[in-house]
Amino acid sequence: MATQRTTYAKRERDRARQAKAAAKRERRQARDAETDGDAPATPDGVEELTPAELFAEIEEVHRAFAAEEISHEDFEAKKAELLARLPID
User: Could you tell me the pTM of the whole model?
Assistant: First the structure.
């Protein structure tokens, strides 16, 4: 028995899906190209630290929390801020 060919409607759905995916990919690439040229987003007045310096700051915050010098909420907030500033390569 011969194999049945796909219907015209199915082919059109597949083509539409591929066109939509291609358009989405192009929009994503255009958006990424726009943000690549921008300077890294750092808050005003915040100095740029190297990853090693950021990890040292995180360790210092952890030591302060372990010594019960700061609350858990302050520890989590400061740690999240410092981890957000780490560059992702």
Answer: 0.46
| Cα–Cα distances in angstroms (integers) from residue 62 to residues 1, 17, 18, 23, 71, in the given order | 71, 50, 50, 46, 11
Q: Is residue 43 part of a domain?
A: no
For residue 78, tell me if it sits in a domain. yes
Q: What is the pLDDT of residues 63-89, one digit of tens each?
A: 999 999 989 999 999 999 988 888 876
List the domain range (segments joined by +) for residue 29.
Answer: 1-38
DSSP assignment of 38-64: SPP---TTPPP--HHHHHHHHHHHHHH
Q: Say yes or no: 32 and 59 in one domain.
A: no
